[in-house]
Design a protein that fits this description.
The complex is a heterodimer of chains A (325) and B (258).
Chain A lengths: L2 E6 L3 H12 L3 E6 L2 H9 L4 E6 L9 H14 L3 E5 L2 H14 L4 E7 L5 E5 L4 E7 L4 E5 L14 E6 L10 E7 L13 E5 L9 H10 L3 E4 L1 H5 L20 E5 L5 H4 L7 E6 L12 E4 L2 H20 L3 H6 L3
Parallel strand pairs in A: 1-2, 1-4, 2-3, 3-9, 4-8, 5-8, 11-12, 11-13, 13-14, 14-15
Antiparallel strand pairs in A: 5-6, 6-7
Helix pairs in contact in A: 3-4, 5-8
Chain B lengths: L2 E4 L2 E3 L20 E3 L1 H17 L3 E6 L5 H10 L3 E5 L9 H12 L6 E5 L10 H9 L3 E11 L2 E8 L2 E8 L2 E5 L11 H7 L4 E4 L1 H4 L7 H4 L2 E8 L7 E4 L4 H11 L4
Parallel strand pairs in B: 1-4, 1-6, 4-5, 5-11, 6-10, 7-10
Antiparallel strand pairs in B: 2-3, 7-8, 8-9
Classes of the chains: A alpha/beta (325), B alpha/beta (258).
The complex binds flavin-adenine dinucleotide and adenosine monophosphate.
Chain lengths: 325, 258
């Protein structure tokens, strides 16, 4: 079987997806820089884990990890090398590509055993298939490419001791600033996303979007017009230059549906739009659209949602008769 | 401080875009514009020049019509430009492009290179790291803020849930997101002045790059097939006459989201 090399960052659904996809192609050798990554690799069916010990690697940007990945790719001559399509994954893949003079496919949403990759072009309006014609298949895998499926095993662990050379200490990570994530689900991974756009009109009124998100157990998103106007923090921006989401349900309220916005949400399973302009492009992709004022429509929908939730939570009449008090 | 800005001409993302018969980005049919994020790169360079002095040079690799994009950067305020134009370049992959751009950078004097975080057409987002690998300078990619103090450069690298403060020494390469600034519009005066600014055009041979290292024959991958994404089937659109909120809730319940 082909050997599939996979870079596993320490967290999340995206890494699990890449491992799940990799498993369909051959035997997976995972590269892990910490215990969390190593156990994720084991849980998702890697047969081998390169457990890298590189003291100080985290204090520097890209270079130390790139050096380790380049060395491992050189030694293990994989048939396929996959990384997640994150900023880090792409940066590392670019480094590997140049060092090995090997081609690179970015943002693949599918990969067959014969090396045929599926990629989106032009913000998703075109779907292409492509293939490496030289060297091995080096690719970054887009979030949502596959459903992560655990396949726990006990991979052979090969420790890799690496030192961070002086050349790899050029870009220092002086500080990491994490903005609090809050109680809602993570935007990129949420099952339901409720987004507001310029039509929401103010940061105060984003509370309405939050209430709808909470009623549906979802995350809150925003269009760039909304984040630019300061209605909602930038990190919640959905789209080409924000987060790409692929939830079961995407609700767009007061969002026109510009191509850059669509690029980040068009693979959502069900799309709902509320917009007072019947010509808004968002309606062209909505499974359910309401032409109307979001300040009328959403509060009414909320009331109805709460009613239905209560009705569900309350035992039915049959159960009631036998229940005490 | 001398700055080189990397800009790429791309088909306007607001209009229909397609691949041509050879499955390459169709640059003839579409209205071509400067890459969206590249405008932010130009603006970042101009703002740094306003503080630190020096010259801003624009570097582009692309067909003849890319001159229009070059003119726009000069009208915004860049001082001069280098345009690499060669028929052998069409159909190159990212590896070859990075080789050519790195060779072109070797002919310019710079302390800092600024690029967009990703191009609007290929959207790979790899060029700045590839060029860093080839030129051997530190790469501080995905910036939402840049500060230069002497030879020290500090950027805020944007992440989904926060940011990292990165620091390095010049010369360096950075790439920028659209959170970094608001690009200026060229003024009428700028547009007039741009006509007199120097634009040098060079070929691969001028750069000492073997034409066989570029183009489709040298590419490491090929596009097999392209298709329009199937349109999402048109759903149900209701106009609110007082009850659409309830109808919406009903739809969500039917889809089992409640
Ligand atoms: C380099 C670049 C990158 C970009 N990246 C992104 C990105 O990542 N994500 C993104 O979203 N955009 C991005 N954009 C911006 C994009 O082009 C659009 O400008 C933006 O998506 C518009 O946001 P909007 O739909 O909220 O605003 P608008 O287009 O102004 O639409 C507002 C909508 O709200 C409706 N409305 C107003 N009031 C109400 C009401 N009371 N009830 C119901 N409807 C109402 C209006 O009819 C209108 O359709 C990018 C642009 C560039 C140049
Ligand atoms: N042909 C080109 N000429 C000049 N700059 C380019 C070219 N291709 C890419 N770039 C630069 O690299 C950035 C990222 O491009 P990409 O890796 O293609 O997404 C762009 O925003 C540009 O700044």
């Amino acid at each position: 079987m082909t050997d599939i090399l996979v870079y596993v960052p320490n967290s999340g659904k995206h890494a699990a997806e890449v491992l799940t996809l990799a498993r369909t192609l051959g035997d997976v050798a995972a590269i892990a820089f910490d215990d969390a990554a190593a156990s994720l690799a084991g849980e998702y069916g890697a047969t081998k884990v390169y457990q890298v010990e590189a003291a100080g690697a985290d204090d520097y940007f890209v270079d130390p990890k790139a050096t380790v990945l380049i060395d491992l790719a050189r030694q293990s001559t994989p048939g396929v090398f996959l990384l997640p399509s994150t900023d880090e994954g792409k940066a590392l893949a670019a480094r590997v590509a140049v060092a090995l003079e090997n081609g690179l496919l970015t943002d693949v949403s599918g990969l067959e055993a014969d090396g045929t990759a599926t990629q989106d072009a032009f913000a998703g309006s075109t779907v292409v298939t492509s293939k490496a014609t030289k060297g091995f298949t080096l690719a970054t895998v887009k979030a949502g490419a596959t459903e992560p499926a655990p396949a726990p095993g006990s991979p052979a662990v090969e420790p890799v001791a690496a030192t961070v050379s002086e050349a790899d200490q050029r870009v220092r990570v002086a500080e990491r600033v994490d903005e609090p994530a809050g109680d809602r689900p993570n935007l990129a991974e949420a099952r339901v996303v409720v987004s507001g756009g310029r039509g929401v009109g103010s940061s105060e009124d984003f509370a309405l979007i939050e209430r709808v998100a909470d009623a549906l157990g979802g995350a809150v998103g925003a269009s760039r017009a909304a984040t630019d106007a300061g209605y909602y923090p930038h990190k919640f921006q959905v789209g080409q230059t924000g987060t790409t989401v692929s939830p079961q349900l995407y609700v767009a309220a007061g969002i026109s549906g510009a191509i850059q916005h669509r690029a980040g949400m068009q693979t959502s399973r069900v799309i709902v739009a509320v917009n007072k302009d019947s010509d808004a492009p968002i309606f062209g992709m909505a499974d359910f659209g309401v032409v109307g004022d979001l300040f009328q429509v959403l509060p009414q929908a909320l009331e109805e949602i709460e009613k239905r939730k209560l009705a569900k939570a309350r035992p039915g009449p049959a159960a009631l008769s036998g229940a005490p008090g | 401080m001398n700055i080189v800005v990397l800009v790429k001409q791309v088909p306007d993302s607001g209009l229909a875009r397609q691949l041509d018969a050879q499955l390459r980005v169709d640059r003839n049919g579409a209205n071509n514009v400067m890459g969206e994020l590249d405008e932010y790169a130009v603006e970042a360079a101009l703002q740094l020049k306003e503080v630190h002095g020096g010259e801003v040079t624009v570097l582009t690799l692309g067909p003849g019509q890319a001159t229009e994009t070059v003119r726009k950067t000069l009208a915004m305020g860049a001082d001069k430009a280098l345009h690499i134009e060669d028929d052998a370049v069409g159909g190159s992959d990212a590896l070859a492009t990075s080789k050519i751009l790195a060779a072109a950078l070797g002919r310019l004097e710079w302390d800092l290179v600024i690029a967009g975080a990703e191009s609007t057409d290929s959207g790979m987002g790899v060029m700045p790291q590839m060029i860093a690998a080839r030129t051997g300078v530190p790469a501080l990619t995905g910036a939402r803020k840049i500060e230069v103090d002497g030879t020290a450069i500090t950027v805020e690298h944007q992440r989904a849930n926060g940011y990292d403060v990165l620091s390095a020494s010049l010369p360096a390469i950075v790439s920028v997101w659209d959170t970094i600034n608001t690009p200026r519009y060229p003024s009428l005066k700028g547009i007039m002045a741009a006509k007199r600014k120097p634009v040098e055009t060079l070929t691969l041979a001028d750069l000492g790059v073997d034409a066989a290292a570029a183009g489709p024959a040298a590419a490491n991958n090929e596009v097999l097939n392209a298709a329009d994404r199937p349109e999402r089937s048109a759903g149900q659109i209701v106009t609110d006459e007082g009850q659409a909120g309830s109808a919406l809730a009903e739809f969500l319940a039917a889809e089992k989201f409640i």
